[in-house]
Amino acid sequence: MRDELLGRSTHDLDFTTDAPPEATRRILEAAQPDSLYAIGEKFGTIGATFGDVVVEITTFRTERYEPGSRKPEVRYGQSLEEDLSRRDFTINAMARDLATGDIIDPFGGQADLKAGVVRAVGEPTIRFAEDPLRLLRAVRFVAQLGFALEPATRAAIARCAGALRQVSRERIFEEMSRILIAPYAARGLRLLADLGLLDVFLPEVIDLRRTTQGKRSKDVFEHTLRVIERTPPDLVLRWAALLHDIGKPRTIVQTENEIHFPGHEHVGERLSEEILLRLRADSSLAKRVSRLAGLHMRANQYEDEWTDGAVRRLMRDAGPDLELLLNLSTADVTSYKAARVEAAVDRVRRLRERIQKLEEEASMEEIRSPLNGDDLMAMFGRGPGPWIKVVKDYLLDLVLEGKLAPNDRQRAEELARQFVKERLAA
Question: What tens digit of pLDDT does each residue of 73-97 get?
C-alpha cells in the first residue's frame, strides 16, 4: 500500500487474511504458481512466485515478544485492525480491501505519507522494544523515501539505541546495506550518528566525526557523507565510500600548521575488512571493499608522466573493480573550490583514456610472469613458500614496465636466478 500510494512500482505483493495457513496453501497451489514456499508457515505466512512477482499471504496475527528476544510468540488474530496494530510504522500499517477497494488506515498512514513522516504505530518505545531492528528500519525508510522522523519516534530511537545489541550482526548488515544504496543515504547515515546507533555497531565511523582534516576543513565524517552523495548506488562502492578514510583517526599526525594521515589507506584497508567480517558480510564483498580502501589514493595521484608499467600495476591491483575505484577517486575530491573538483575529474578522465589505450594494446590476462610457481620450484629445487610470490611479482613488474616479454622464458630464468642470488639467498 505504501508503494502504491507513492506511485512506486513493486514486484512484491503482501496480503493478509483470516484464512489459516493450511487453507492459504491450498488456494495458492490451485493457482499453479511457478514456486510455492512455506518457510514462514509457523508465523502464518505462505509465499509463492508468479513470474517476477512474489506473493506472500499471512494470516491475521497478534504477537507477544519476550524481553530481549526478537522471536515473537505468534497467535492468530481475528481482525485486520488487530493485525495492523502490530506493524512498525504508520506508513506500513495500511491495507486495501480487495473486494471493495476501500483503504483501511486506522493509524493515519496516508496523512504521514503526504507529510513525509516516519511515525511508529502507537507507543514508539514499545514498538522498538518488541523488535530493535525497527530502530534501523526507521532510518532506512528516511534514507529511501527522503522523509523525516516524527519527533516522538526520533526521541524513542535515541533512548532505545542500546537495544540494537540484541540484533544479529547479519540483520544489521542487511539494513545498513539498504541504507547505503538508498537515494538519501547521507541523510540516513547522519541520523544513525546523531541518534547513537552507529556507536553500537560501527564506532569506527563515529571516530571520523571527531577527526578534523584541517583548521578550515570539514571533519572526516562530513567529508565521507559528501563522497557517498557523489557515488553511484553500487553496494561495494558505497561501502568503500563509507570506509575509505576509516584509517585516518588512527594515523593522524598534527603539526603546528598542518594535519597529515600517513599510510591511512593501508590501515583503512585492514580495518575495512575487519569491520565487514565483524558484521558477517560476505568475505568476497569484504575483500573488494578493503581493496578499494587501500587503493583509493592511487588514482588521484596520477600524473601524465606515469610509465605504462605504473598504470598497468594500478589496473592489475584494482582488477575487476577498476571502474569502481575510478568512481571513488573522483568522488573523493569534495573541495568547495570548483577548480579543485574540475582538476580531479580531468585527472581521472586522462587516466581512463590511458587505461583504454593500454587495454587496446594488450589485455591484462595477456600480461603475466613468464614463469609460474611450478617453473620456479623446479628451477631452484625449493618447495612452496612466500618466496615464489616475491619472484613472480618481480618478473611481472618487469613485464608491466615493458622490460620483459610475457613469453620470454629464457630471459626470465636468467633474471630470476640473478634476483634470487642477490636478494633471496638467505
Answer: 566 666 888 889 889 999 999 999 9
Please count the other Cβ atoms lying within 10 Å of the Cβ belonging to residue 213. 19
- Dist. CA 50–CA 296, nearest whole Å: 43
User: 410 near 371, Cβ under 8 Å?
Assistant: no
Euclidean distance between CA atoms 100 and 360, whole angstroms: 63
At 56, list the grid cell: 506472500
What pLDDT sits at residue 392?
A: 86
Q: How confident is the model at residue 216 (pLDDT cuts 50, 70, 90)?
A: low
| Range 351-388 burial, b when 16+ CB lie within 10 A, else e | bbebbeebeeeeebeebebbbeeebbeeeeeeeeeeeb
Coil, helix or strand for 189? helix
For 374, residues 6+ apart whose C-beta sits below 8 A from its C-beta are: none
CB contact at 8 A, 392 and 359 = no
- The H or E element spanning position 330 is helix 322-331
Among 376, 379, 367, 373, residue whose Cα is nearest residue 406:
367
Contact 42, 74 (CB under 8 A): yes
Residue indicated by cell numbers 557523507: 225
The cell 491475521 sits on which residue? 60
Only one residue has cell 535515541, namely 158
What is the average pLDDT across 121-132?
95
CB distance 347 to 300 below 8 Å = yes
372: confidence class by pLDDT, cuts 50, 70, 90: confident
| Residue whose C-alpha cell is 547521507 | 186
Indicate the range of 151-165, 173-187, 408-422 predicted with least confidence.
Answer: 408-422
Q: Which residue has the cell 485486520?
A: 80
Q: Give one word for 261, left, alpha or beta, with left for phi > 0 and alpha for psi -120 to 50.
A: beta
Rounded Cα–Cα distance for residues 81 and 18 (Å):
12
